[in-house]
Design a protein that fits this description.
The complex is a heterodimer of chains A (about 220) and B (about 110).
Chain A (H helix, E strand, L loop, with lengths): L2 E7 L6 H10 L3 E6 L6 H7 L3 E4 L6 H14 L4 E4 L9 H11 L5 E5 L10 H19 L11 E4 H4 L11 H11 L4 E5 L11 H16 L1
Chain B lengths: L1 H22 L5 H19 L1 H10 L6 H43 L1
Classes of the chains: A alpha/beta (about 220), B mainly alpha (about 110).
């Protein structure tokens, strides 16, 4: 089965070559979507051996993932994995994430930072931001997963082509979850480890996500 | 009375300008009709402001007709902002679709 690892990247020159090389060495097709970076992310990714799709204008992580996912399925990928460009996900976890798909035990698999204690989350993120995110996702979308904001996910071509999300920026994670749960496909969570270099999204990012979801819901 | 006269003069100025723009063909027929109706309605409201005050009072408003008009205008402006925001969202969505298509064409 052909597995494509889609990596959205924006100004990730610091990490992209290392990430691409590791994913390539693990034997996966590596599709980097450069979201109109101002640095040489695209060149470095190409030199490291990735298929590079370059956005003409910056459209956000959700849009970059959509471009990469659609391109991969159009180019006969059987499984698509969403992966980060900043070196915070571990390449060896890809095998864990796609295993239930290969065994036909699930159609969609999410990596979760909360199924074991290997991820060292900042205190405020573990105790305040993530519980709030879980609560919002549970109340608004009926999502009962342990890590609804996880960007590490994989799905098969059959299901992937039905998953259509409209959010271009960071709200895509919540929307993808909601769409997947509505589609009634088989969902599984597996533990992953995230190595934090940066804090990531704070509370203000969470509010922006809620605002984006609200506007789209009215549209 | 002087206030009504000044307001009427301002409205006539804008109506005149509207006809001039129509003659120069700088606005479409639709826009011309919209703004003509808008200024005529405003003129009627200004000329019959006293009667309108009585009507608003009878409707239970404790303020004058002109204040009710201002409040309604604010509500209308909020509605317009909301509509523009939705329109903007749609344009953004289409922009992303175009961007994706261009990206794929570039790759081929």
């Amino acid at each position: 089965m052909k597995t494509s690892v889609v990596i959205p990247a924006y100004n990730e020159a610091r990490w992209i070559a290392k990430v691409v090389k590791e994913v390539k060495d693990a034997g996966y097709e590596t599709v980097v979507v450069d979201d109109c970076s101002r640095d040489n992310t695209a060149v470095l990714a190409e030199q490291a051996g990735a298929v590079v799709l370059q956005h003409v204008i910056n459209r956000g992580q959700g849009a970059a993932l959509r471009t990469g996912t659609n391109w991969s399925f159009e180019n006969s990928a059987d499984i698509v994995v969403h992966f980060d460009a900043d070196g915070q996900f571990r390449v060896q976890d890809i095998a864990w994430v796609i295993e239930p798909l290969l065994q036909d035990q699930a159609d969609v698999v999410f990596g979760s930072r909360f199924l074991d204690n290997t991820t060292k989350l900042p205190w405020s993120k573990r105790q305040i931001i993530m519980p709030l995110a879980r609560l919002v996702n549970r109340v608004l979308f009926g999502v009962k997963l342990t890590d609804p904001q996880s960007g590490f996910r994989a799905f098969t071509a059959k299901v992937g082509q039905q998953i259509v999300w409209r959010q271009d920026r960071m709200a895509h994670a919540s929307e993808i979850l909601a769409v997947i749960l509505r589609s009634k496909c088989r969902v599984k969570e597996v533990p992953i480890t995230v190595i934090y270099h940066e804090f990531g999204q704070g509370l203000s990012g969470g509010f922006k996500i809620l605002k984006d979801l609200f506007i789209k819901a009215l549209d | 009375m002087l206030q009504i006269l000044i307001a009427a003069l301002v409205i006539f100025f804008f109506i005149g300008k509207l006809f001039w723009q129509k003659k120069k063909k700088t606005i479409s027929s639709g826009e011309f009709i919209f703004w003509l109706v808008f200024w005529l309605v405003t003129l009627i409201l200004v000329l019959f402001i006293k009667q309108l005050d009585q009507i608003t009072s009878r409707l239970g408003f404790s303020v004058s007709a002109i204040q009710v008009a201002v409040y309604l205008a604010i509500v209308f402006l909020f509605y317009l902002i909301f509509k523009v925001r939705l329109k903007l969202e749609k344009i953004e969505e289409n922009l992303t679709k175009l961007n994706e298509a261009l990206t794929k064409i570039k790759k081929e």
